[in-house]
Amino acid sequence: MTNKPLLLDCTLRDGGYYTNWDFDENLVEDYCRTMENLPIEYVEVGYRSIPLKGYLGEYFYCPEYVLKRLKKLMPSKKLVIILNEKDIRATHVDELLGPCKDYIKLVRLAIDPSNFERAIVLAKAIKKMGFEVGFNVMYMSNWKENSSFLDLLEGLDDTIDYFYMVDSFGGVFPKDVKEIMDLVKSKTNCALGFHGHNNLEMAMANTLTAIDHGCSIVDATITGMGRGAGNLRTELFLTYLDSQQIAKIEYNNLSVVVAKFEKLKAEFLWGTSLPYMFSGANSLPQKQVMEWVGMNRYPISSIVNALNNQKEAVADNFRLPVLPKEEKYRKAIILGGGKTVRNSSVAIKKLLKQNYDICLVHAGARNVGEYLDVSCEQFYALVGFESEKLLDKVKDFGNISQTCVYPPYPRAMGTIVPQEIINLSNELSAVDFTNISSDSPLALAIQIALDKGVTELYFAGFDGYETSINHTQYLVSQENQKIFDELLNYKDVVVKCITPTKYKNMNIISVFSLVK
């Protein structure tokens, strides 16, 4: 490579998949000042979107005041926003892009090839407003098998400024890049771009191959921050350009910003791993893998098992006997993993002992060791790592009355049941009190109690989290809160929290007020 291609940094947009498009303002300012002093032509600052359900942060909507601030910080850069084509129509263009004219140079469209014809209508409306237009067409690794959408490129050279090949699954190799670029070149004269993901750690090699084969513009992000396994690292590509004397890099500011994003990486843990490698090699969706990895709920073996089931089109690989539904108990204590379970264990055990119509349900295995001497029937809600934790806590399954309970069939993760507990294991017929999650330990525990006829639910050990929490804890707390909210609206069930909790809307009473 002798000529420098155009470089587009899309850290705030692609990295937003980890932060929900919220970034610390000081970090953004440092990032922008660094971008301003680097040989980077385009900076993609986020999405613009119509209002969507749920919370999405500042850089998903990029209000005009945000664009104005960013342009002031990066006056020499061509700023970029992206539209998710599946949500946006030509009728939205004036409202969404009108406020952008003073700040934005390039508007890119994230496009599923199956919606290509519809995207052309949107692109023409954007082009009329005077913006450069980029097509980010996804699922590049599947194009050789289904390339008919490329026939629609004819006559669009005046509409599309950059046609991006997006390796959505991170699964292509240099030879694939060459073949696909030849295919695209046979259909259009548009300038080509490449956006590589790093599942197989091929983002750099594929990007250099794309450039050598005539690619005009490439994407990268600081520390590779991006959806799933992430992207080509901006600092790596710039170092390469510097080493080849293609561009001169000032490393002082770059190193400071990289260090700050490395701190984010330690929290959110983007980058490749065995599940991302497997999904990339087999062109499997990244969204599901990202959720599984991000919740830190499942061992790698379970995630890879689930991905292999997807590859083989197997819904699940194991059925268990269904937990019988019966009017057996009136009350249940559901134990979470919080410290208050251990602090209140004597009182909780007394409460169990003085009630004949009560069962104990463990939402996970963290505290089962404290309650092995309890004589009432116990249920273990098992998801992800919990089976292994249970084996570590319980050495002899013959001395207590217990049932291990798994999510309903078919389980998205597939099923791996340790041999030691297979004869004690059941599955739920359904999780029907909530649609938030069918494999949350909390949701499973609640459904177990409901299936046993329970009408009074006592929760212990659902302490909630302190103000300073990591990303995984945040995801779990948000999921738990939604499940609690749906339970509180469920039919004819009394819900009480008998230990302290930070979860909202809970009726809190003291376990010590219930024991004699």
Automatic annotation (TrEMBL):
It comes from the Bacteria. It holds the Pfam family HMGL-like. Keywords: Manganese. The keyword Manganese applies. Gene3D superfamilies: Aldolase class I. InterPro entries: 2-IPM_HCS-like (IPR050073), Aldolase_TIM (IPR013785), PYR_CT (IPR000891). This is 4-hydroxy 2-oxovalerate aldolase. It comes from Maribacter dokdonensis.
